[in-house]
Every structure is written in C-alpha cells, then in structure tokens.
C-alpha cells in the first residue's frame, strides 16, 4: 500500500489510515509508550518508541509517555529519569507524562465495582495451588473453593488487604470469568496482589497493586488512547484487554490493541532482568557500558540517534517473529558516521618511521580534509616531520607479493604527506623492529604532487613531536553465541566474550584530537569510527571504537 509520500505503509500505518478515513474517533490519533521503570531502555524499546511516537507524528496525533509502575519491588526513579533522557535523545517528544500509579484509585474503584457485580472474588489459595488448578489449553481448570464466596465477604477482605492486614502472598483478587475458557488468560486471572514495599511515587498509600492485564488496557481507556501498539506476545492477552474495556466503556470510545514483531538481534541479549544482572554482577561497567544494547550504552559507544532510527526504519514492522543480524545495526551507524565523522590519524600500535633525507629541524603543516564525502568539507592541519609513528603492522621486512605497505624497496604514500620509499629497519636483540627507515620525494607533496608516481598503498601516521598519547577502547560483541537468550542455554554468563573489551593505553593521536569533546565522532583513518568517552580527562583522552570500518566479524566466524 502507498502513502501520500510514495513510501509503502507498514501494516499499523495502514490500519491508522483506514481508521482516519472511516472517521473513527473523529480522526483523533493517540498512542502511548508504556515502559516499566525497572531498567534502562534497550534497542528493542527503540523499535517500540519509533512506532508509538512515529504514528503520532505522522498523523498529527499525540503520543504520551506512560510509566507502567505497578510493581514497586523492581521500580525506581533512576530509571524514570533515564528513560526520559533516552527518548529525547532519540529525537521524540511526548505529549504528557502519565504513570499507571496516577490511576491507582480509579483501578481500585473499578475492582470494587467488579466484586460488587460478581465479576471478582478474593482468593485465599497460594500461587502454587492456583497454578495447579489452571488446567491446560486442552483440559479445563478447576474452580477455586473461594470462587462463590459472598460478595460482601470479598469486598471486606479486599478492603482489608489494602489496609495492610494481610501478609504478601496470602490473598489475591481474581476476576471471575471462566475456568474452562480456551484462552488460559480467562481462567480467573489474578488482578490484584498485596505488595508491602513502598512505591517510588505513592509511598505506602497502597498495599494492593494491579496486575499488568488489569492495568494496561484500563490506563489506555482513562487516557483516551486510540491505538495501543505493543509486541506480539500480547496477542493472547488482547481478548482479556477487550473484556475489561467492555466492562468499563461508557460511550462508543474504546482503545484498540495492535501487535508487531519485537526486535531480536543476533549476539544480543534484550531482557532487562538479565541486563540488570550483568550490571549488578559487574560483568559490564554499568547500564551505559558501550557493550550494552541499552540506548545509553549505544550513545556512549558512539551510535547516533539517526543511525538507530534508520536501522529501525529499515527492518520494518511485521506480524512475524524473526531475528535481525546485528551487522545491520553496525552497518547503519557506519553509514551515518561516514557522512559526518571528521577524519583523523591515530596510530594504535606505533613504531618509529624516520625519513632519513628530511631535514632534522624542518616541520610542515599539511592540510587534512575533515570529510572527503562532503564537497564543502572543512579542513585542519597535521604536522609532518622527520620522525613519525606508523602502525607496526604496516611494516614487514620480508613481505609477500601483494603487501602494499612498507617493505624495503617499496613506495607508499603517507596520507596528506609525501610518497616515501622504504629503505630498511633496525631491530632489537629479540628481533623486534624498533625503527623503520624511508626516503621521501619532495616533489610528491599531497595537494601539489608533480612526481607523476603511482603507488598502491596509503598509510596513516602521526609526527613524534606533535602527537598526544590517548587511550583507545576496542569493543567486540558481548556474547560469543548468536542467541544468548536460547532457552537451551542454562546460564547466559557462560557465553560472555572474554575479548569484548581490549584497552590500548598508549596509542598516538594527531594533536588535533587534544581539543576533542565528549561524544564527538571521528573516523580514525583505516581503522574505524570512534568517539570521545566521558572518562577522558584534560590530560588523557579516551576513545571508544563505535564500529570498525568494515565488517570483520563475518570473516571470523566462517
Ligand atoms: P524486557 O522483557 O526487556 O524487560 P519489557 O517488554 O518488559 O522488556 P517494557 O518496559 O514493558 O519492557 O516495554 C515497554 C514497551 O517496549 C512495550 O510496549 C514492549 O512491547 C516494548 N518492547 C520491549 N522489548 C521490545 C523489543 N525487543 N522489541 C520491540 N519492542 C519491545
Ligand atoms: Mg513489560
């Protein structure tokens, strides 16, 4: 199907356009993004955010932010603040901020109403007993002995539950629906439980808390949500969502739930519970560790909001579960940074190169184009001198035929500098190369080259006296297996990649990087995309590798 802009619609946009055409709710569009503040947002949430906010933006509606804070045991304001920051960073604006806890009174009143109408009862059996009586999808469950207790008794018990007269786990409130229903969610679901932990917003005002199924749809209804978009695992919950809405509805208005395929990425874990475990057990440095799939981790790693949104746009929304290659996410950031990152030279593994025919006291300021992809690119200067650093890997004494880097007798170009001919090297007693020698051709200066010489290789370098020492952090995938969430895996921590972080403490960077600012993006020529880590000090800059220039991983596994 085509929208006005000629881009094909996803199935949710198609539903929304049909509803607008048919005049549903007078064309009013309202969505919500409903995170539980029990952890930081991850790249999977970005997919939900892009559709929830994207639909509202595209169809002149509103998307509210609603914190689904119905379980005080796991929730915290730290997460509320982080979630807001991440959504804004991704580039989205919410209409209003709501909390499920804003509706605790309304939800409680609705629960009492259900009890009074015979639609709910207080259960005294344990969670295990209830589970044992649930039946299976093909066999009916067994009615609770408390199912038919008098309304007055349930009402009295429910009120006393909320006064704190009973311990956690002793009593629950169950909806009285159908213990033989083919949808297991209808077999008298628990709708309220006792929790004796203070809530981060309502303190100790409440002792009973609504379950997800009793809160979500009703909150949608109270707020006036028109399209409640969520992931496919909620398909089986939808009939119950509609059941409670049916009991609440006072006019034609009702919210409707639509489900899309969640994002699963190879080599990536996306359960907040397990990510929290990694943080608590210090397997990573925190929620913003650049190896984490969290939005804050990706930001620190050097991902841009545009790259994340482009990635989500490319994978699209369907009704079928699947797994996306994490290489596609890496591709998206490479593509974006290629357009925006300033090109600089950093030598990770330095060895000295001495240009023996270059005057000892001479220095030249060479012009470096910040971004060759941009025809109007700015420039900066780099200092060329007799003593330089190049990568150890860029010199080989006895090189194979197709080695186009430094080897005695071979010409290479030093980027933004001159063509040089390698003349030899000096080794220490262990045979390690400690100095490389070359001669330069003064007529081959980049930008005014009259030498007419063609060379196959171009190397990056920095001047020994005009560079700074920097720390470089090289990241790799956090897990060694494609699906760390595989149910067959007993303990996902057994599959943590021991080489997911490599630290180089004394890389040599051109002096231009002394002024680099936190989170600024660079391309280290021939190496990859990097950004400045907030751990940087005025004395020592720290750089994170966002992504290598090319996908090297696919070669590694083959
Ligand atoms: P987790 O299982 O990681 O704890 P969650 O689903 O419990 O995640 P919520 O805070 O409840 O986390 O999620 C808020 C919204 O984000 C929900 O609408 C949920 O469907 C959506 N969401 C969560 N994970 C993904 C994912 N991997 N892909 C797409 N949407 C997701
Ligand atoms: Mg959830």
TrEMBL record:
InterPro entries xrefs: Gln-tRNA-synth, Gln/Glu-tRNA_Ligase, Glu/Gln-tRNA-synth, Glu/Gln-tRNA-synth_Ib_cat-dom, Glu/Gln-tRNA-synth_Ib_codon-bd, Rbsml_bL25/Gln-tRNA_synth_N, Ribosomal_bL25/Gln-tRNA_synth, Rossmann-like_a/b/a_fold
Domain tRNA synthetases class I (E and Q) anti-codon binding per the UniProt entry, residue ranges: 458-533
Residue stretches making up the Glutamyl/glutaminyl-tRNA synthetase class Ib anti-codon binding domain: 341-441
Keyword Hydrolase: no
Keyword Acetylation (UniProt): no
Residue ranges constituting the Glutamyl/glutaminyl-tRNA synthetase class Ib catalytic domain according to the UniProt record: 29-338
Enzyme superclass (EC): ligase
EC number annotated for this UniProt entry: 6.1.1.18
Origin superkingdom: Bacteria
SUPFAM superfamilies: Nucleotidylyl transferase, Ribosomal protein L25-like
UniProt KW keywords: Aminoacyl-tRNA synthetase, ATP-binding, Cytoplasm, Ligase, Nucleotide-binding, Protein biosynthesis
GO molecular function terms attached to this record: glutamine-tRNA ligase activity
PANTHER family xref list: GLUTAMATE--TRNA LIGASE (PTHR43097:SF5), GLUTAMINE-TRNA LIGASE (PTHR43097)
NCBIfam families: glnS (TIGR00440), PRK14703.1 (NF011291)
Family listed: Belongs to the class-I aminoacyl-tRNA synthetase family.
Name of this protein: Glutamine--tRNA ligase
Source species taxonomy: Bacteria, Pseudomonadati, Bacteroidota, Bacteroidia, Bacteroidales
